[in-house]
Amino acid sequence: MPTNVTPLSQRTPQLGVGQLLEGLKPSFRFSEVSFDSYIPDPAHPSQEKAVTALREFAATAGRKTAAGGFWGKLFGRGAAGAQEPAGIYLDGGFGVGKTHLLASLYHAVEGQRAFGTFVEYTNLVGALSFRRTVDVLSDYTLVCIDEFELDDPGDTVLMSRLMRELADAGVKLAATSNTLPGSLGEGRFAAADFQREIQVLADQFTVIKVDGEDYRHRGLPEAPAPLSSGELEDFAAEHYPEAAIAVDDFGPLCERMTSVHPSRYRQLVDDVDVLVLKDVETIEAQALALRFVVLADRLYDQDVKIVASGVPFDKLFTEEMMSGGYMKKYHRTVSRLTALARAGQMGEETL
């Protein structure tokens, strides 16, 4: 018999500083990936080149540079012959396997290393203080930032300082994003007013372009139509007799998300195998839409299958959102939710 676990809308996850640090590692989906398990698309040679570049980068991790190396050169503090940028930055569209590659790098490097989403690092600073975060992460060999993006000026200044000081300490950095480093923040806030901070971020990375199609939907049929609300729970119980199933109404779930910090969404979906989501509606508010992006990422990370009613996930965001400053985030979210819905309703493995 399936087990009905607490609905997400009734959960209040708590997260201590120790748990924040312990949680800086690849999620369940990427816990055992490697460069060997990444299958480059022959039609896009940049994917094979990215694997080669990351293998070479992994071999350099752990080689601490002298204080004032790269950053001494950047700010005129060091001698000639300064080190190359401390970071590698995977730029590409959604669904080309950037997170797989970043997690593979994490697994290939020895020593202390951290792997987290952008929001997890900003929350770590909030929990520890900026100086304490720098002190802790400066002892790490590698810091990986998945889905690097700047949504507001405060994040721009914060992450610019954090990355600069970690690079100064000799920490290797690796990031993924859908946006080139020098273009971070465009369409979201007055990025031109923070160009210095954005340039500081851009200058510390060597950019590796990863082209390709969204592998989650390559050659697959369109997503199945949503079910009716009345049949969702019976469908889930019949098709997932041994699963842990959370049943949520879309409205209350959205209300809960506004009161839980996005950094805790990983804990919000703990112990859930299947999410039954009733009466999905198009999200009109940008703030809620951005929170749903984070929730979708955590559901995808934990490989939570979705059985849903209401509007299909390609209608989750408004047309304005899908063509606005956050369009890349929303397209990635639709891609991932569609994959989870296909897995939930058609019994396919999620890619």
TrEMBL record:
- Cite a single GO BP annotation: cell division
Taxonomically, what lineage is the organism?
Answer: Bacteria, Bacillati, Actinomycetota, Actinomycetes, Micrococcales
- A Pfam family this chain is assigned to: AFG1_ATPase
Q: Which domain of life is it from?
A: Bacteria
Q: What is this protein called?
A: Cell division protein ZapE
The UniProt keyword set, sorted, is: ATP-binding, Cell cycle, Cell division, Nucleotide-binding
Entry-linked NCBIfam families = ZapE
InterPro entries registered for this protein in UniProt: ATPase_AFG1-like (IPR005654), P-loop_NTPase (IPR027417)
The answer to whether the entry has keyword Nucleotide-binding is yes
